Amino acid sequence: MSATTETTITYAGPGGWQQRVHVEPVWGTHVTIDLRGEVLPDNVDSLIADAVAYLHQVDAWFSTYRVDTPITMYRNGLIPLFRTPTVVQEVLEACRYAKALTRGAFDPWAVKGGVDPSGYVKGWAAGQLADRLVRAGVRNVCVNASGDIACRGQQAPGQPWAIGITNPYDTLEVVEVVHIGDGAIATSGLYERGRHIANPRTASSEVFYDSATIVGPDAGLADALATGALVEGPGAAAWFAHLPGWSVYFIKDRQVSFFGPAFDRS
Amino acid sequence: MKRAILVSSGTLAGLVAVLTYSGGDTLPASAAGAGAAGLGGPPPLGSTDQATTAPSGGVRGATGATGGAGPASPAPPAPAAGAISAAPPKAATPGATTPAVKPPPTASKAAAPKPAPRPASTKAAAPKPTPTPTPTKAATPAGPKDYIGSLQTHKYGQVQVGIRVQGGKIIAVWPVVYPDGNSQPYSDFSIPVLESETMAAQSANIATVSGATLTWQSWTTSLQSALAKAGL
Fold first, then answer.
1. How far apart are CA A96 and CA B2, in angstroms?
2. Interface test with A, best of B39, B159, B213, B219 (most A CBs within 10 A)
3. Are the Cβ atoms of A174 and B201 closer than 8 angstroms?
4. Is A163 in contact with B207 (Cβ distance < 8 A)?
C-alpha cells in the first residue's frame, strides 16, 4: 500500500527453512502473513499478491466505514440480504450461530445502524486466507490480523506455531505461550488498539475481563467468542460444553483462569 | 426518486463516519479505537492516507531535521511518567548518528549507533551484559557486530531496529528510529518493554503474539530483517 513501507521480507527461516513475511495495512490495522517451509513455492510473490488482494476484497465486502460495500448498503436498506454476495450471507449466518451460542453476549445486531459483523470477520478472514494459502501449496502459514491469528502447519521443523498471549497490563509483554498446529487463537481486550468492544446487553462499553483469549479450530468463531467472553465473564465457560477441543485463557485483576487442551500442562 | 434519496442519505452517513474519524485523529488512542471499531478503517483510501500520513509526515520531518527524536525536537511533550522520562536520552543517542528518514541499508557498521545502556528496561537490565562501547570498526570475527533492520512505517509512525550480535547471540537491541510526535508517549512506553521482550523471546521462540499492537508488529518485522542480515 504505502510506497515508503518495506512490507515484504524473505530470509532464511528457522531450521534451514525459507520464510516470507508480509505486513499489509488494511482494515484500519495491520495484517501479518508469515509463510514458511523447506522450500517455498516459486510463485510465492504472486501468492502474496493474491493474499493482499483478498484482504482488500474482504474490506470491500465488509467494511462498515465505506458506503459502497454490500454490508453498508444492506445496513442502509439499499439492498435486501439476498442481493448481497453469498459470502456476506454466510458470514451473517455464522454470526447468528455465534450469537445463539453465546446467548447474546456476542451480538452484531446490537449496534446502531443495523448489523456490524466486524467482531467475527477479522478472525474469519484470517482463517480463510490461511486456507487459501495452504490450497496454493504453502504448508506452513500464520496469518495475524492484529491478534486474531490463524495457523496452519508448523513454525519450524517439528515445532508447532508458538503464539504469545500479551499481558493486558503491559501490552507488549507475553504472559503465556500457546502451541497451535492447525487452528486459531483470538484475544479480545480493551487494551488492544483498534478494538472497540460494546456490551450488547447493557449497551455500554462495560466488560468483565481485562483480556479474553480463545483457542480453537475456527478463527472466525474464536474471534467472536473472545469478544463475547470479554463481556460475559465466567458464565462464558458454559458455552464450551458444546465446543470440545476449545480452550480459554481469561485475565481479570491480574488473576488468570484457563481451561482446555491448549493450556493442559500435564 | 426514493432510491436517489436513499443513496444520498447513505453517502451522508459515510461522510459523517469520515468526519468522525478524522476528528478523533488528534488523539491517537481514540482514533485507533474508531479506526477499527468496524472492520474497515476509514473508508475511502485517499482519506486513510491523508489521515495517517499527516501525523507521520510531521514526525518524519521532525526526526529527519533534527536527526534525533529527543531533546532537539520542539514537539516532545513533557515526560509524563517515569517510564517515559527515561526514554529521551536513549532516543538521542541512536537518532543523532543516523538520519531517520534514510535507513542505512549498507552502512550498517558505520552508522550503527551504539546502544546506550538502557536502565529503563526492567527485565533486560539484569541479564543484559551491557555491551562495552567498543569502536564498531574494530570488529574482529569474535567481536560484536551491529545490524540495522528495515524501516517499518505504520499508522502512528516508523520503527527501525538495530541489533548487536556476538557469538551468534543478540547481546543488545535498540530502536534506531521509532515513532514520536503524536504517539510519543505510547512509543516511549512500549519500546523499552519490547527490547526486553525481544531478548526474552530469543529463547521463547515465539512466532507472533495475540493481542498485538502496531508497534509490536513493526518492531518484529524490522527485527526479523535485522536478524536476516545477521544470518541468525
1. 31
2. B39
3. yes
4. yes
CB A146 within 8 A of CB A31: yes
The three cell numbers of residue A9 are 521480507
Bridge partner list, A22? A8, A33
Note down pLDDT in tens along chain A; length 266 residues: 333 333 455 556 667 788 888 878 888 777 889 899 988 898 999 999 999 999 999 999 999 889 999 999 999 999 999 999 999 999 999 999 999 999 999 999 988 778 999 999 999 999 999 999 999 999 999 999 888 999 999 998 898 998 888 777 766 567 788 999 999 999 988 654 434 556 666 656 677 888 899 999 999 999 999 999 998 988 998 999 888 899 999 988 778 888 889 887 64
Superfamily, domain A8-263: ApbE-like domains (3.10.520.10)
**Domain chopping of chain B, boundaries:** 63-230
Partner residue opposite A21 with nearest CB, options B29, B210, B221: B221
Is residue A133 within a helix (H) or strand (E), and if so which, with residue range? Answer: helix A118-135
Q: What residue spans define the domains of chain A? A: 8-263
Query: How far is Cα of residue B41 from the mean position of the Cα atoms in its chain?
Result: 21
Chain B contact probe: residue of A29, A149, A223, A249 with most B CBs at under 10 A: A29
| Integer angstrom CA distances of residue A235 from A102, A208, A240, A250, B178 | 9, 11, 10, 12, 42
- Global pTM reads 0.58
List chain A residues with CB under 8 Å of B31: none
Asked if the Cβ–Cβ distance from A77 to B231 is below 8 Å, we say no
Cβ-defined contact of A23 to B36 (cutoff 8 Å)? no
**In chain A, which among 152-211 make CB contacts under 8 A with chain B?**
155-156, 159, 161-166, 168, 170-174, 177-178, 185-187, 189, 191-196, 211
